[in-house]
Every structure is written in C-alpha cells, then in structure tokens.
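User: For a benchmark we're assembling, each entry needs the component sequences followed by a predicted structure for the full assembly. Here are entry 17's components. Please fill in the structure.
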Amino acid sequence: MLGERVAIVGAGYTPLRPISPEVSFREMIFEAAVKAYADAGIRPHDVSTFVSVAEDYNDGTAITDEYVPDQLGAVLKPVQTVSGDGITGLASLVMQLETGQLDLAVIEGHSKASNVVRPAHIQAFALDPIYARPLAFHPNYVAGLEMRAFLAATGNTEAQAALVAALNRASALRNPLAAYPARMTADDVLTSRPEAEPLKRGDIAATADGAIVLVLARESQLARYKLNGRPVFINGIGWGQHTPNIEERDLHRAIYAEQSGRMAYKMAGITNPASQIDFAEVDDTFSYKQLQHLEALGLAETGQAGRLLEQGVFSPGGALPVNVSGGHLGCGYTHEMAGLRSVLEVVLQLRGTAGERQLPGVRVGLAQSWRGIPTTSGAVAVLGRE
Amino acid sequence: MLDKIHQSRQARQVTGEIPIHHRYTLGVAGERFFKALRDRQELLASPCPQCRDRLLPPKLYCERCFVETTEPWEAVEGAGFVRSFTVLHRSLEEEALPRPEVVAMISWPGVRGGLIHRLQEVEPHRVTLGMAVSPVWAPQRVGAMSDILYFRPAQAD
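Assistant: Structure for entry 17:
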C-alpha cells in the first residue's frame, strides 16, 4: 500500500500529428506545460520536482536531460530525466512524492519522431553489438519473431491481430488528439504490405509528434493548493523488465507486463483484474502486442484475447473497453511519451471529459506501457476516481 | 502572431548526424565462443551448476541463478531447430529487399538460448517451426558472427 496517495491534478497536451515542421519539440512542451498548469490551477514555481522521460538518440542530442528545464518552468528546480517509458517515469515521480518531502510534481513526455531520419538505425543500435547487430537486419524482425511465437503458442490468429489494428484506427475517429484515425477492415490490414511476416504494415503503429505534461500532488495537499480539476488517483503502479538477450526470452510471453501488472494490482488491492478494472489502455505498438498484453495483464485468459475481441468485449460498449482512445495504432506511437498518452486517456475518461468517446460510469482504469523493440521493459498504472 | 508560417516550405530546419564509433569487448566468454567458432566450427555452450541449463551463446554467469557457470564448455551437437522465424521484406535502410529474407531464432535440444541468423536454401513458405537446420560456414573465418554465412535445412544423413 502507498503511505499517502498521489493524484494527477492537471493535464496539458498538444494534439498528435504525423509531422510538425513549424514547431520545435521544446515549443511543443511549452504549450503542453502552460495548458497543464492552467488546468491544475497552479504556477510552475509552486512545483517541487520535475521528471522528464526521454532518450538521447530519439531527441538527437547527447545528455538531452540538460535541455529539459527551460520550457517547463523548471529552471533552478530539481529535475530528473528517466530514460524509459512514460509510466516508468511516472512511477519514479510517485516515489518522490511518497517521501512526504515534496508537494507538487510534474512529469513531461514528448515525441518529435518526424525529426528522426533513420529510426531503424536507433533500434538496431539497441541490439546486442556482438551477436545480433552485425547481422544488420531491419529491427522489426524482433517483432516478427515474437508475433509468430505468440500466435503459435496461444492460438490467437493473424486475422484477430489485424482486427485489433482496424478497431483501434476506427476508435481514433472519435479522438480529436489522434493522428491516424481511419475506417478500415481487418482485411485491409491482412492485405497490407508484408514487413516482417507475419507482421504487416497495417499491424505497425506509425509514429507521431506531440507533448504531454501532467501535474501530480499528494492527497493531503489537494485542498491547500486549491486545485481546479477533479483529481484522479494513482492507486497502483508497477514496472518490470525481462532480459536484453533475445535468445533468453520466451518469445511468446510479455513477462514484463505480467510482472508490472502483478506489482500494480497488489498495490491497488486488485485481485480479479478482469472484473475490477472498468477499461484499459494497453500498448499496441504492434497489433499482436495488444492481445499479448491483455493476456499478460490477466484481462483475458491465455489464448482468449482474440476471441474476446471478436465478440466485442473490448469494444467501447463491451464489458472491458480497451484502447477507446484509438491506442498507438490510432493515435500514433510517440516514443517515451507513449505511456503518458495512455495515462492521459485514462485521466480524461475518469474525469468524464473524454467527449464523444466518454465511457459511462467508469471508476477504475488501467494504463500499460512497453518500451518498444528490442526491449522487454514496461510499466502499469491503475488509476481511480477515488 | 499574425505572421505564423502558413506554407510548409517556409518552415526551416537544419540537419545533423551523430557519428558514433565504438569498440565492443567480446569478453572472456565471447573470446572462447568465437575462437571455437573460427578454429573448430563449434558452437560452445557453458553449463550452469545450479539450474543445469547449458547456455548458448556461452556466458560466464547464469542470468537466472546469478552463479558462475562451470566447466566443461562443450559444443552443441547435431542439428538445431527453428524456435521462431520471420520473413523480412525491408533492409535496415528502409528499402524493399529484392528477395525477402528468412530470419530465424535457432536453438538446440538441451540448450537454453540460441542464435539469430538468416535461413537460406529454402523457400520462405516452406519454413516451419521446429524445422531442423544446420550452419553453413564461411571458408575464411575471423571469429565473428559472419563466420556463419547462414543456416539451411539440415541434411537427412
């Protein structure tokens, strides 16, 4: 259990876009920060600590954390950059607040993916330099190996994975933030260009640009700061990592998601996730990943995620809506920010401000992240209205 | 604010690159693995005294038990098998490959781990999970992954 609960009390964000040629990533962060502080009803000088999530290679700058403070109003304040996905950064910030020494905290994530000229080179550079990298394959092969192993081990199908992509792109039609809304069918995905078979173009989330800033506070400080919005509580948070050695992995399993789910559930007092969680935003950087993550998180029995998807269980009107935002497939994959985008959707839903895609009566939502290929790390946050 | 950019060609940018050059030490286990690969065309595995797994590529320690591996390091025997595979259509430079390439995770019975490599001399649609495969060695070997040119279906002999 947490000593004292932590709440998300403000959110600011830019819409996600495939390209953003007229604005720098620091200007996007500035926009998100101004909106987040206005949303929470605070000024940046009230904030005690800041966390940024970023990778040097994606930002194109060595020691990129040096570039964080200015556009956040964080000059001369404690700032820490977590080189990991957004929810891992969020966990770090929650722990800082748990010390009881700090009142208000801010986390920032951004993506300027359109400025990364050779993203495959960055992923290839993350592969083992002695055994894997010399083969110089396009790094999507890692996802291709995983997808085949996952489908073979669980009985989920390529067509069900394709349906994930079609449904998420369609859900994005109701999300004004989304970069890739589309009306498409599973057949469109199945017949799209093969990339790393069984993975096809339609199974892969395209990247997007954007920035998100969230404001956090300890529960005891909510009244003191006269915060504006309805607080959304972080009732559980967990993270996990498997192994960097691809040959050591159970290619069909997302062990990092199993581990981070268990950790977050224990903290949130959740014993039966499928019935206690009202809706979820799970990582769908590749279509099969949504099915794999749902099973790893105990939101579907092993081998059942695809069938439940077909039955509409994960649709907006189903028993457990999943990626009602459109997921990364519909919104765009946003590097380290991706996990925060999932958290943002859960926050908007729990506040009741998700517009035409608002789910009725939701009280508990889950956000799950994965750091992308070739990693096996990820995190989970369980958020609640109370 | 009235002078916002309204034509994309007016949005300016500069380009840059990160020229990174690095050395990667093979380490004690890597030296031994690649020497055996180069000199004897063998794939060495190192045994964990605790879980009894044989690790390929060999390591000085078992990452699951956190104990040092022990002697003897023995070569894997017989054909490997395809644990998973993918048919890759794109190069690292994002260009369409003229001929799609089969990339496989290859393991051996009684071994934990395995090697990632290309699979050739077989049509992609004929590759199956569990298929028996063996390495094709480079005539001139230098002690690197390139000493294995590729894997191919194991000959039934």
